[in-house]
From TrEMBL:
Species assigned in the record: Parasphingopyxis lamellibrachiae
Keywords: Signal
PROSITE patterns: PROKAR_LIPOPROTEIN (PS51257)
Residues of the signal peptide: 1-21
Protein name: Beta-barrel assembly machine subunit BamE
Length: 116
């Protein structure tokens, strides 16, 4: 009887334990069409800054990073994640919108914002 009570108690305590929050390793929406984004996908923050200039926003969370660039025609969000533990985060996902918040062509936005 004591063994049953002890095992039940341990099982109940195990249910209370929480696992640590996972570190994001990839964006939840995988990019299926990267045509025209070759200049951006795989770039690190320094490469993006050379391409677009300084970001208007720089968000960091649990090893991931989002850099936002903007111009007259669009806003570009670039999502950087480390390809493996201890490595520099690189762009794995890109999103683009106009001033009204409507989605725009990502490749066209990259071209509009890129320094020549």
């Amino acid at each position: 009887m004591r063994k049953t009570i002890a095992i039940s108690g341990l099982a109940a305590l195990a249910g209370c334990a929480t696992a640590p929050a996972p570190v994001p390793t990839a964006v939840s929406r995988p990019m299926t069409n990267t045509v025209g984004l070759e200049r951006v996908i795989g770039q690190d923050a320094a490469g993006l800054t050379r391409l677009f200039g300084n970001p208007i926003q720089d968000f960091r969370e649990a090893g991931a990073r989002k850099l936002q660039f903007a111009g007259a025609s669009c806003v570009l969000d670039t999502y950087l994640y480390p390809p493996s533990s201890g490595r520099e985060p690189v762009v794995t996902y890109v999103d683009a919108r106009n001033a009204a918040g409507e989605d725009v062509d990502r490749a066209a936005c990259v071209e509009a914002l890129a320094r020549r």
